Amino acid sequence: MTDSQFPPASYAQQKKRKAGWLVILLCSTVAGLFLCTAIGSVSISISSVWQGIFGLLTGQLIETDSLIAAMRLERVGAAFLAGASLALAGCLMQALLRNPLADPYILGVSGGASVGAIAVLFFSAACLAINIAALVGAALITVSLYLLSRRSFGSLHGTTQILLTGVMLAFGCGALVTLMLTLAPAHDLRGMVFWLIGDLSGTPFSLTQCLLLVIVLGWSWHQSNAINLLSRQADMAASLGVPVTSLQKTLFALSAILTAMAVAEAGCISFVGMTVPHICRRIWGSDHRWLVPASTLMGGLFLILADTIARSVVSPIQLPVGAVTAIIGAPVFLFQLRKGGR
Questions:
Q1: Which terminal CB of the chain, N or C, has fewer other CB atoms within 10 Å?
Q2: Could you read off the pLDDT of 116-128 as tens digits, one per residue?
Q3: C-alpha–C-alpha distance, residues 11 and 133, integer Å
Q4: Distance between CA atoms of residues 299 and 126, nearest Å
């Protein structure tokens, strides 16, 4: 049942309930930012976290705890941006393909980023070049996917063609990555594998990524009614005046850009883009006015918690965060499917 099918009183109650859950999620995200900054191999107090924040803003970091807090804040902020970007990309991708199980990696964008990053690691280049190469690889795959399936945008069965084309490109990128891993020197394999599974150690907080996320979030929320119609049926959306072809292209481009930025900064982190929007849909429904901000916040919170577990559970050894998200996400997703089946 959609929101429009509720009687007025019931609709008001539904709206109030959804707003309440969104406020709870926002408060939980803010609390998670502070708590996950304080937790680690060396625990620090919340007051030290505040000192770290003021120190970053003023450029005056004196105490050891505030220095630790500042370093962790940057990592926690990077984790939030990566998780929020992947979850929002997954939400847009599921609307584009009209499939609640779609994943932002399914179109091969992460595969292209992996080829670029692994190629740089294969030739032992600088860390800065890894991010640039990942973005270039993701951009090449995105352009290739668009050129191969541009006639599919706006057509009745276009989403299937886009999906299949992306899957084939992802398989090709996977084969190239496997070849490079096979030929790589032994001392480079650990870094390559960590990047492929997802690693946030040393990842800086990117203002560019933050600005991009805010812009895409604002646009998606503004276009939520059109996205609602598109996610149900393209023909119905077109008959109601929605520019289906241009909206599909924009959703495709924005989800690819968000995925490319997240993968370039944090590596390939699985299950965030698929699991988080699916869980949010069960709480807030399929209305993208609620689903877009909820997915963004929950994706950031989920990756913050997963990264805290990755760097704390067997400290001082750090686990790849992508493995933690998969371990948590797979059973949660299966539980959601089983619950939905009942």
A1: C
A2: 888 888 876 555 6
A3: 49
A4: 30
* pLDDT, tens only, 28-39: 999 988 888 888
Q: Which residue has the higher pLDDT, 44 or 306?
A: 306
Q: pLDDT by residue (tens digit) across 159-198? A: 777 788 888 888 999 899 889 888 888 777 877 887 788 8
Q: CA separation (Å) from 109 to 128, 216, 217, 271?
A: 20, 18, 20, 15
Locate the domains of the chain by residue range.
Answer: 22-341
**CATH topology classification for 22-341:** ABC transporter involved in vitamin B12 uptake, BtuC (1.10.3470)
How far apart, in whole angstroms, are the C-alpha atoms of residue 169 and residue 167? 5
Closest C-alpha among 95, 85, 104 to residue 295: 85
